[in-house]
Amino acid sequence: MRRMVWLALGLVLVLAGCGGPARKATGPAAPGTPWPLWRVPAFGVALRHPPGWTVAPGYLARRQGRTGFVSLNALQGAGLSARAAAQAQLDQPLDPFGAKPRLEPTRIDGEQAYLILPSADQAAQYQGMAEALVLYPKPQAISGTPYRYLIVTATSRYLQRVVATLKFSQGP
To answer: What's this model's pTM, rounded to 2 decimal places?
Structure first.
């Protein structure tokens, strides 16, 4: 019996070491791990995202990982104020931000912007997404078409941290 206990204990110790070092559940990386810089010349910006997020196949400008995502898009917005452009994003027919999302004015890299933050009733299929709509310092030509607004869509828990790192570089 004593030998069986020692064999069982030995097996537990061997198996405990098989998975490599245990990781503390801290999100995408340990605290203090620098976020990688993502330069997106087509959109005229650079920003940072959590470590471990990689290029999402099939998307023009999206990074994703097990803890979330960030993607870029643009809105021509000719004749629309920043508030009206943000409201247009908010008023999508499928209510991707829930029935009562918040629209918060802010500044991102010195430019007028609005955060669109989801309400508690946001449908699960939208993965907790939130958006920032940011006025370009000057219209950004994307595939030859001028766009006035950058749209940053991200998992809501990361949106504000991601856009806080956004810098306009302007140019293709």
So the answer is: 0.79
